[in-house]
Specification:
The protein is α+β, with helices and mostly antiparallel strands. It has 11 helices and 20 strands. Strands 2, 4, 8, 9, 10, 11, 12, 13, 14, 15, 16, 17 and 18 form a 13-stranded mixed beta sheet that branches. Strands 1-3-5-6-7 form a 5-stranded mixed beta sheet. It is globular, with a radius of gyration of 20 Å.
């Protein structure tokens, strides 16, 4: 696949207008965007999300070359620029690499909730987008949104109506709108017109501050998944939003000088904690709530005629890197990871034999 290259020597890389335009133009011309940074660079969560959605790569260059999105050592930069993404070293070999493990001075690593939510709205004048981010930050104890914008630096005072107006101007498909909140939290919201109304996709990165839950996270994602808090948050979402699908995973964030994102070091894979399928996904996916409820981790929520399915991931399950955009993933014993963007909802089920492509054909997305 052809590629385009964006080089920077900055120690802090954010989703500025030039970088956002580079990624968008790469996608428009059918080429893979490659971000090249120094090994010690801090890349914001918004840049990482944009690269993943575009099928791009982030390569950190130093004593070693490191594919920071795939967590893979490269012999040379040409391995990634030439579209050769072979895993030359196992992930475990990176844990002792001096250039890739310890964050630089004045930096902090922290466990975090990684939340993805797909919503559906009626196409009405009074429809407001972004309210789900307010609820997510409040429910996870992070506070409230403070600022929003379409690029970094994020500078406009938070206003869900103003964000909605900006998304409405960009319809039928709006680019991600960036949000910064209290507690060093961050989120982004996208919107798109569908045949039946308006689709909203929200993604949030929320540091885990509660010491008791930090201790649970250190014991393993399956231990944190057993904490009722995640299930309570997902259940609360169904009471106030028309949720198509939602998921909460355990990940890690690197903070430097107030910026939330990633260093180019060894990054544990995201581990699913809880997932939710709303009535639309249950119905259009042809899922059987009674059969799903036979699994001890699954709870049926809502009305009998329009049920939602909630699952807690009490057994260790790591999602790994996002697949290439548009790739279909079979659903058997684990969740299908959907790359950030306006795509089909996540699907899961014990013996269900569905693929993302099949579900996409059954839904109005």
């Amino acid at each position: 696949m052809p590629f385009s290259e964006y080089r920077t020597t900055s120690w802090r890389v954010t989703l500025t207008a030039p970088l956002q335009s580079f990624i968008a133009q790469s996608v428009a011309h059918g080429v893979r965007p490659i971000l090249l940074t120094e090994v010690g660079a801090h890349v914001s969560a918004f840049v990482v999300a944009a690269l993943r959605a575009a099928g791009g790569r982030w390569v950190a260059v130093g004593i070693a070359q490191w594919d920071a999105l795939q967590c893979t050592l490269l012999d040379t930069v040409d391995d990634v620029l030439g579209s050769v993404f072979d895993h030359l070293e196992p992930d475990e070999a990176i844990e002792s690499h001096p250039d890739l493990v310890d964050p630089p001075l004045f930096a902090q690593r922290m466990p975090a909730y990684l939340v993805r939510v797909h919503l559906e709205h009626r196409a009405e004048a009074g429809t407001v987008l972004g309210a789900v981010v307010e609820d997510l930050l409040r429910l996870f104890g992070a506070g409230r949104p403070l600022l929003w914008d379409v690029t970094e630096p994020v500078a406009q005072p938070w206003s869900a109506p103003a964000l909605t107006a900006s998304i409405r101007e960009q319809m039928p498909i709006a680019r991600p709108h960036l949000i910064l909140g209290e507690g060093q939290s961050a989120a982004q919201v996208m919107g798109a017109r569908t045949a039946t109304g308006v689709a909203e996709y929200a993604e949030a990165w929320i540091p885990i501050r509660d010491e008791a839950r930090v201790a649970l996270a250190r014991q393993g994602p399956e231990v944190l998944a057993a904490d009722p808090h995640v299930a309570e948050v997902l259940t609360a979402l169904t009471a106030s939003h028309r949720v198509v699908s939602a998921s909460v995973a355990l990940g890690r964030l690197d903070e430097r000088c107030g910026s939330i994102g990633r260093f180019a070091g060894y990054q544990p894979r995201e581990a699913m904690l809880g997932s939710l399928l709303g009535p639309t996904a249950v119905s259009d996916g042809g899922l059987d709530p009674q059969a799903a409820a036979a699994q001890p981790e699954v709870t049926v929520l809502g009305r009998r005629r329009a049920p939602s399915l909630l699952r807690r991931w009490l057994r260790r399950q790591e999602t790994g890197p996002a697949p290439e955009p548009g790739a279909a993933s079979a659903v058997t014993t684990g969740p299908a990871h959907v790359p950030p963007g306006m795509d089909a909802p996540d699907v899961w089920g014990g013996e269900l034999d569905l693929t993302l492509e099949e579900l996409r054909c059954r839904t109005s997305w």
